[in-house]
Automatic annotation (TrEMBL):
Protein name: MFS transporter
Keyword Membrane attached: yes
Pfam family, one: MFS_1
Keywords associated with the record: Cell membrane, Membrane, Transmembrane, Transmembrane helix, Transport
Subcellular location: Cell membrane
Any one GO molecular-function label of the UniProt entry: transmembrane transporter activity
4Fe-4S in keyword set: no
Topological category with respect to the lipid bilayer: Multi-pass membrane protein
Major facilitator superfamily (MFS) profile domain: residues covered: 11-420
GO CC aspect terms: plasma membrane
């Protein structure tokens, strides 16, 4: 029986590798299109709209993707999502080859590609429960986070090099190739393992969505964890939106790029640690400690104008993220009915990413209209907070990071004292004991 579980894990690793390279390909496209549109228009709004086209459709459609992931073979859903994503990329490619491509065509193509990803991600997350044992969840979660972080660590570096050697059109072909490879791997594994039984109930989408929402909302501990994740993603969204503007007031573009890559490498280290060693117990404790430390490191981003200290704080912050994401995923996964995991994960994903969308919507206003004026040389806080962290352009953003970091640390205390969240771990421990007895 153990050998069979190990064989299942090895098959998961093949699927994970395919998704790993496809995520890198997606990162190449997003980075390249962002640079292309910004150079074409010279406006930040056009760059932000690329991000919205890439991330908003999946957020809105994931509940439907989750329902389909529970209704059909999750591997087929992954292939459907990956192959469908190539359509938008090929549309942009052919429009560029034709010449005189317009912005609306770029936005349309990236939107079509992202729409199909809404059907892929819930199926991928739910497939973990189909293939692996409970003791393997944490390792799988760490590896999946490793793949996700590659989009921010490897893709910008690779895209920067490739754009200096190749025309942007070939970036899309590279992305298409990675999606095809990922699809072929999933099809190959499906042929080896055969079909996985699916509970197909003759219900409509709204009924299944309602069932998924009821499964999600009936456990208050799960609800509290999801709300916590949404708040964390709001603060991370502020970092994503404002980190580069803050650094550009201090250093050159090249130095900013290097700093970004070094900060993102922290997530790689944390994900590798969990992927290799796993995490079998103490998930609430791990989550609370990691949140508290990450808040301190987040605040550290704003305490100094020295690029070395900022990069070190950023590295440590991102290194903590896998130790936050893993216990959240494990605690939720072990408290949700497997037959409803696809639709529940889609609801959870949609809910949590509201935090990021809100951050993108308000970050510019908060920085330009509120925090930056406070830290101008003649600002209200110039002689108090400004004495500690400095005044001038970008120091208002630094103050935002300090406030956001302290808020995250306060949230960790809420997690530590939350009895409902602690009960999630009791259920997980019971399930692990039962699994060992079997």
């Amino acid at each position: 029986m153990t050998d069979n579980f190990q064989d299942q894990y090895s098959k998961f690793l093949y699927i994970w590798f395919g998704q790993f390279i496809s995520i890198i390909g997606t990162g190449l496209t997003i980075f390249a299109l962002g640079v292309y549109v910004y150079q074409l228009t010279g406006t930040a709004s056009s760059y932000v709209f690329i991000l919205m086209c890439a991330f908003l459709p999946p957020i809105l459609l994931k509940p439907y993707g989750g329902i389909l992931a529970d209704r059909h073979d999750r591997r087929i859903m992954m292939v459907f999502g990956d192959l469908g994503s190539t359509l938008g990329l090929l549309f942009i490619f052919f429009m560029m080859v034709k010449g005189n491509i317009e912005l609306w065509q770029v936005y349309l193509g990236i939107s079509v590609s992202s729409i199909f990803s809404a059907f892929q991600e819930p199926a991928y997350k739910a497939l973990v429960t189909d293939l692996l044992t409970r003791d393997q969840y944490a390792k799988a979660s760490g590896l999946m986070q490793l793949a996700s972080s590659a989009q921010y660590l490897l893709s910008p570096l690779l895209a920067g090099v490739l754009l200096s050697l190749l025309d942007i059109k070939f970036i899309f072909l590279i992305d298409v190739s990675t999606l095809l490879i990922a699809s072929f791997i999933v099809i190959w594994i499906r042929n080896i393992l055969g079909e996985i039984p699916v509970n197909r109930q003759e219900t409509n989408f709204m009924e299944e969505f309602k069932e998924g929402f009821q499964e999600f909302s009936k456990n208050t501990g799960v609800v509290h964890l999801v709300i916590t994740t949404m708040i964390i993603l709001f603060f991370v969204g502020l970092l994503q939106s404002l980190f580069v503007p803050m650094l550009l007031n201090l250093e050159s573009v090249k130095t900013v790029g290097i700093s970004q890559s070094l900060c993102a490498s922290g997530m790689i280290i944390g994900s590798l640690f969990i992927g290799i060693f796993g995490s079998r117990s103490g998930h609430v404790t791990m989550l609370s400690i990691a949140l508290f430390l990450s808040g301190l490191f987040f605040a550290g981003l704003g305490l100094s104008a020295n690029i070395i200290l900022i990069t070190l704080a950023g590295f440590l912050f991102f290194a903590m993220l896998p130790f936050i994401n893993t216990p959240i995923e494990v605690l939720i996964r072990t408290n949700i009915d497997n037959q409803k995991q696809g639709r529940v994960w889609s609801i959870i994903s949609t809910t949590t990413y509201v935090g990021s969308i809100l951050a993108f919507a308000v970050a510019g206003f908060l920085a330009d209209a509120l925090f930056d004026p406070l830290l101008k040389p003649d600002g209200v806080l110039a002689d108090s907070i400004g004495f500690l962290i400095g005044t001038g352009s970008g120091r208002g953003i630094a103050f935002m990071f300090i406030v956001a970091g302290l808020m995250i640390s306060i949230i960790s205390l809420f997690i530590w004292k939350n009895s409902r969240i602690k009960r999630l771990e009791d259920v997980e421990k019971q399930n692990r004991v039962m699994s060992l007895q079997l």
